[in-house]
Amino acid sequence: MIEQQIEELRAELNACIEPAKRREIEAELEIAQAELIMMLGEQDGSIDAEPPF
Prior knowledge:
Elements (H helix, E strand, L loop, with lengths): L1 H14 L3 H26 L9
Helix pairs in contact: 1-2
């Protein structure tokens, strides 16, 4: 699901020429990529999502 969202955002970014909209899409893409990194890290155990307390 998140991979599909990232691909859609990349395609939208490539087609966009309006600077303000591009910045918005870039921000959404960065968030989606960070979420994917967190998900993968949680799955392989390299990231602990539990709070330290």
